[in-house]
Amino acid sequence: MSKWVGKPLKRKEDFRLLTGRGKYIDDIVLPNMLHAAILRSPYPHAIIKNIDVSEARKLSGVVYILTGEELAQMTGPMLSYYLLQAPPTTQQYFMAFRKVRFVGEPVAAVAAETKEAAKDALELINVEYEPLKTVIDPEEAMKENAPILYEDAGTNILYHNIYVYGDVEKEFKEADIILSEKLSIHPYTSAPLETFGCIASYDGFSLTVWSPDQIPGMVVRALSAAIKIPEDKIRIISAQDIGGGYGIKTTLLPYMVIVSALSLKTLRPVKWIEERHEHFMAAGHSAGGRFYVQLALTRDGLVRAIRLKTIEDEGIFSLWTCLYWLLKLTNIVNCYKIRAVYFEPFSVATNKCAAVPNRGVGKPGMCYIIERMMNLAAQRLGLTPEEIRFRNFIPPEEFPYRTPTGNLYDSGRYAEALKLLLEKIEIEKLREEQRKLREQGRYIGIGISTGLEPSVSNFSYFEFMEVGRPNTTGASSAARVTITPGGKVVVAIGSPCSGQGHETTLAQVVAEELGITPEDVTVLPFDTQSCPTTSSQGLYANRFVSMDLGAVTKALSRLKEKILRIAASQLDAPLESLTFGDGKIYVKDSPDRAITLESIATIAYSDVLKLKDIEPGLTETAYYVHPSADRPDDKKRMSIQLVFGYNFHAAVVEVDIETGQVKILRYVVVADCGRIINPMIVEGQVHGATAHGIASALYEGILYNEEGQCLTTTYTDFGAASAVDLPNIEVYHIETPSPFTVMGAKGVGEGGAIPSPAAIANAVEDALSPFGVKITELPITPEKILRLIKQSQKK
Amino acid sequence: MKRKIKVKVNGVWYEAEVKPNRLLVHFLREDLGLTGTHIGCLEGRCGACAIILDGLAVKSCQLLAVQVNGSEIITVEGLAKNGKLHPIQESFWEHHAVQCGFCTPGMLIAAYQLLIRNPNPSEEEVRKGLSGNLCRCTGYVNIVKAVKAAASKMRGEYNE
Asked: A111 and A119 in contact (C-beta within 8 Å)?
């Protein structure tokens, strides 16, 4: 019986956050600190003829002006080590060098005594541009006569490949029905409420950087290579509190390089905080995609094969390119027993801000593709949306299940989860109600979407793509657990946290294992020099609960063994007879024979002669590798991600056919993330991720005009969803532990964002079924709905 | 030319000289060190900078410091009294209405005003009352629950 694991413990983090005592990057002030501001390109594509900073230099308070040219001389181009960069190789820099490729690209940076002076100086920098032809649409960018972003590449198609798994030709030849469709998804962003920012302080010898970056352990090597300071002399300290990340904050590296360079030049601390409009125009957003998809079906509704040509709009093709198509390989067959896969990805460069990781990265798009196609197939065959899914689900007895592309699904009870979902929404009653309301001229729609939630990236994918980092495989995490001399516990893991409650979850697990209370456990904020980490560790890909906890659990088991050895010698009892509880180690059969953890700590650190042959101290560091991480085989099969939860969604919507407005009447989720450590935190993750998916399907998106100007540079223009736009989200759980993770837990932070766009699209299409409307693109704005209704009435 | 202002913040009077173009949010964060009031957009949308000004919730990024001369302000730091959390703060904690915490100060302030005006709001009224504030973590689900719970707590037990 567990005392702490599985309990909805109130978060340890919250007192400081509720009372205004959080410490975010903008709250940090250092003595003698300068402030930076960044000049950005007003052109989507232009040659930089000249930059004149002479007037700006004269402004009082201006200390240093760094141009792209000077930075390029310092750093050279970005190295492919940290780019997912494919041939044809492109030379990319941390700040625009000789050419700009999107509106908002950094061109120069100013360090000044005040923010105001830095911003005023930007106005005085005179940049002479020679505008070039611009390409915004990815399919236009693929054409031969399109303007080229990277001349050295000679094409805007920066990655193209064909991956074939199983006998696709045969499946399509033998299919009773072939469904073909073109679908598309727009660029959107989770737009964290806290923007980017960082502080760099170089003292002539070593560099300290404070930042809300999600992958500081990974970035430190790249920063070192860029600014030519050895890695051991760079310390990246994560801000204690990070105001949301959602993947976007895996891409702070260029700004850390710029701000560090300013500190190197001035030998003073330099702070830069991104403004909201800068975030929207230049921080990055998800890749827009065009999808040409075909399903091969039997007349019984069994999906035998899928063909997908995906065109990913990578914008200027920056740090994490190729991820949007790559991660589609994690859920291309979703929860279904599909036998063959043809996959043809394109990564295309356009004159837009870079596509960067955003909650779910490519998986929401893939789920949208397959879940839309399942509904279209059901319509074609006269089946209900749930029936076609039941017929195709991988049955529970086939787990662990190897998909045709090589993913090893750990566990799942898909049919059971869908049954629960249908039961919760009372599907039969609901359909009856829908029929009645339709007679009254009200258009209610029910949308079901069953989405796999793959987690934990397997870095063998660099090998799989034959690009990017050499000598990088698998998935690993590090952690250190220390019992202090006073008998309390301090935990360090190799990744930061941006609101997921790691301090609380870790404390629950540690308290459970050591028989203490969560109050006695402290988790250190991440810092590259005092926390152990690995090159694949960080706050991304739902890794925490499988990987970081894996390392913590491993460290704990070593620590426990040492504690037991000390206890055994003190209690004169056999090691196997001892157990942990109530802050003590005691003999199971006679609990009076006990020693407190505090006394053990005293012996380990002070009364060391009592240890005899045991080494003093109580601290253990452990490194954990995910057990099912593999490398691509000769047929290019591998598990791109390693842990597979799922989120099944049902949306009930009403469409106002006069205004095109969609109102969500009910939203229900069944989530399976394996063993749950803190149900309250887990539910919060599902809520937030689901809200992102709903909002991006209906309201939010990044828009560019044909000239390449970003039109959505405020929360208002972007359409950020407020409390009145979003529904109450009901969450139910089933728990199918993973056999491959230490505690059986699976990631849960992305799952809600994956099936939700499809659930909304399916619901809206169902509502409008009397008009025979087909939803093929997102977002589903009122304008689009009215247009679709009008078109259908013309027919 | 700097102007002299006098303002009461969380029960304490402060005198300061500020530039006429200094935003109130910068004055609070940088001059008074009250960093609980956050900056999420500076465009008056996100509400992370909300404070109570003479009894009304306002977005402090939309005001100049010189405009609050003689006024009384409550920021998030002033909600707890004598080490005891305000019932809204308690409810946010109990209902997991906080994830990254960046919107939290503004949400607490918005909820504070809402519950003064309407001690027994419906879910719809709560949602409307919070619609000037953005949260990107919670989908608002638990924030709405927390505000409803705080309302019943305040009706039943809490006297200021």
From this structure: no
